[in-house]
Design brief:
Largest sheet: 6 strands, mixed
Structural class: alpha/beta
Strand content: 5-15%
Distance between the termini: 37 Å
CATH class of the largest domain: Alpha Beta
Number of domains: 2
Radius of gyration: 21 Å
CATH superfamily of the largest domain: Periplasmic binding protein-like II
Helix content: 40-55%
Shape: globular
């Protein structure tokens, strides 16, 4: 069972078709479910009643933890392919030292998409520190290019300077996610975590955003980046598919680099892990053997190839030995270099902690528009997450 998004249903059909062809004794059929809360509730209900499909696709990270994996899922640590998984993905499907999923899909990143032609024309190099990034912005502004594109007309897009900066938070304070979940660390009082809010403020205060930042929508931002009227766009890398849908000729023009921090030596990418393919505890006997075989196929180079044949690949795979198709966009090639380098990528906070408040996008718009100062924004967000942590009944938040 997979969600009914176009990409995921195509990927599932592609995997089933290839697997069925290679395994004549087993038939994999694909069932789809709604996306969003409705689909979420369906997964949880079917798991609790023991009525789940033999294999199902679902989020990795803290949402997977909410499924009570040790009770409801079959552990797969003992499978030969488990050792071939990328470390970030392993972390996102591990609970109580046990591994529960195979990667379904590819990585996404919270990063800066940039126009390589604009960089070339202005003699710029990819920055590895925030100071270098701001120096590039000064040169771009002088050349008449909007240095940083923001699209606050679509509020969710405002969050990436904060959410995409988490690699730098982890590099400075490796236990932040754990302490944050236990209510022992805050954005406002942790300098590395506050930095994301400060970046929003600095870019606005320096006049580095596009003129229409307050009203621009995602499609406006994508157009400015593709046409080179804007140089940088802090966003999720997956939007490259939208950009290439409208501007296919810019496949090699748009590149990606991580949101830079203070230390060039620790420069790295904040990644969103692929979803997982899981086996529910209700799958037993011959069906369990077949399900294990199917997961082994998903987590193999053949499985990656089946996914690549079925849909456009917008990020690196999480399995060693999988290769990207030659025609992937430059953004994906750039991401791969960070995934390949040990220590140069780490998970976004939402994969490590269930604590996330609903008001972050609104707060980021205010800080990024000069309406609220960065420390106030961080403080307000710390307040915002409290309610949600209490609703989840997390220890330390009562």
């Amino acid at each position: 069972m997979v969600d009914n998004s176009d990409t995921n249903s195509k990927m599932a059909e592609g995997l089933a078709k290839e697997f069925n062809a290679k395994n004549p004794g087993i038939v994999v059929k694909v069932e789809t479910r709604p996306q969003g809360t409705e689909g979420d509730n369906l997964v949880k209900t079917r798991l609790s009643t023991g009525d789940m499909t033999d294999v199902f696709q679902y989020n990795s990270g803290s949402l997977m933890q909410a499924l009570a994996p040790t009770k409801n899922l079959v552990a797969v640590d003992d499978q030969p392919w488990a050792g071939k998984l990328d470390e970030n993905f392993k972390t996102s499907v591990t609970s109580e030292q046990k591994l529960f999923g195979a990667p379904f899909g590819t990585y996404n990143a919270g990063a800066i998409l940039y126009n390589r032609e604009v960089y070339q024309k202005n003699g710029l190099r990819v920055p590895t520190t925030w100071d270098e990034f701001m120096a590039n912005n000064a040169k771009l502004k002088a050349a008449g290019v909007a240095p940083v594109i923001q699209s606050y007309g679509e509020t969710w897009t405002s969050q990436l300077f904060v959410l995409g900066d988490f690699h730098n938070v982890t590099a400075a304070q490796p236990d932040f996610a754990e302490k944050y979940t236990a209510n022992q660390a805050k954005y406002a009082t942790t300098p590395a975590a506050l930095a994301g809010f400060e970046h929003l403020q600095e870019v606005h205060a320096a006049g580095y955003t596009n003129k229409d930042f307050a009203s621009a929508k995602l499609n406006d931002a994508v157009e400015q980046l593709a046409k080179g009227t804007g140089a940088h766009y802090p966003i999720l890398s997956g939007i490259i598919s939208q950009l290439l849908g409208t501007f296919p000729e810019e496949k090699d023009t748009i590149g990606l680099f991580p949101i830079p921090g203070d230390d060039a030596a620790k420069n790295g990418l904040t990644v969103w892990a692929p979803a997982g393919a899981y086996i529910p505890a209700s799958t037993t006997g011959e069906k369990l053997d077949a399900a294990r075989k199917f997961l082994a196929f998903i987590a193999s180079p053949e499985g990656c190839a089946a996914q690549a044949n079925a849909t456009v690949i917008n990020g690196p795979f999480a399995v060693q030995g999988c290769t990207l198709p030659d025609d992937v966009p430059q953004v994906v090639k750039d991401m791969q270099t960070y995934i390949d380098k040990p220590g140069a990528s780490s998970l976004a906070l939402e994969f490590l902690s269930p604590v996330k408040g609903p008001a972050l996008e609104q707060i980021c718009v205010e800080v990024g528009s000069g309406i609220r100062k960065a420390p106030d924004g961080a403080k307000l967000y710390d307040e915002d997450v409290k309610k949600q942590a209490q609703q989840l009944g997390l220890p330390g938040w009562s």
